[in-house]
Write a structure and sequence with these properties.
Blueprint: H1 3-20, H2 22-33, H3 42-51, E1 57-61, H4 65-71, E2 76-81, H5 84-93, E3 100-104, H6 124-127, E4 137-142, H7 147-154, E5 158-167, E6 185-190, E7 195-200
Parallel strand pairs: 1-2, 1-4, 2-3, 4-5
Antiparallel strand pairs: 5-7, 6-7
């Protein structure tokens, strides 16, 4: 089959997919129009815009356009990235901001390996959270690699009333993420290709 025939077939397949899934096309168009916002569900973006403040400290696993967006709303942010490409790109995006660092930490396991709750030893990508005191963070985003383990080790670092955001939570049944049932879900939403959930650590914010 000629290359042009293969390309046309691929194009027809894409067109048919979009025709069958207008919601997917709508969400992709929205992403292009709002490409400087976090790539989480649109409703979750609005929730964060309403709840993040300059008095808060955040940690983000998985950098991107979100890093600059969060940094513009938080007092301080550390973002962890395993991709050299995205680390370079994001570092350039945030070079004019003094309250944010994007740190490159490579992963220590194959990228296609399923996420796990426990590692021995703990990968440095996850272990960066141990630099923070318990109950010292207001906002944590898990949107990178080692997601189960990141969630597990992040919870103790959140202040009472702090927010834990997990994107693409549909990778696993919700109980398998390990967040206690006593932590209220304060936001949960999805688009055609994204699903975001936010828990709040119980207790009054200090």
């Amino acid at each position: 089959m000629a290359d042009c025939d293969r390309n046309m077939m691929s194009m027809r397949q894409r067109v048919m997919f979009y025709l069958r899934r207008p919601d997917y096309m709508r969400d992709r168009v929205r992403e292009l129009l709002h490409r400087h916002e976090p790539r989480i569900s649109p409703e979750a973006v609005r929730f964060c815009a309403a709840h993040l403040t300059r008095e808060q400290i955040g940690l983000e696993w998985g950098s991107g356009y979100s890093t600059r967006w969060y940094a513009e709303r938080l007092g301080k942010l550390l973002s962890i990235e395993f991709s050299p490409y995205w680390h370079t790109k994001v570092s350039e995006m945030i070079r004019h901001l003094e309250n944010v660092e994007c740190r490159f930490i490579p992963v220590e396991h194959p990228l296609d390996q399923p996420t796990r709750l426990n590692y021995n030893p703990l990968p440095q990508y996850v272990a960066v959270v141990t630099e923070f005191d318990d109950q010292s963070l207001d906002f944590i985003v898990v949107d990178g690699h080692y997601r189960q383990s990141c969630v597990k080790h992040a919870m103790a670092k959140l202040k009472k009333g702090g927010l834990l955001l997990l994107d693409d939570y549909w990778f696993l049944p919700l109980p398998e993420w390990g967040v206690p049932v006593s932590w209220p879900v304060v936001h949960k939403s999805s688009s055609s290709y994204k699903a975001t959930i936010i828990w709040r650590r119980p207790g009054a914010a200090v």
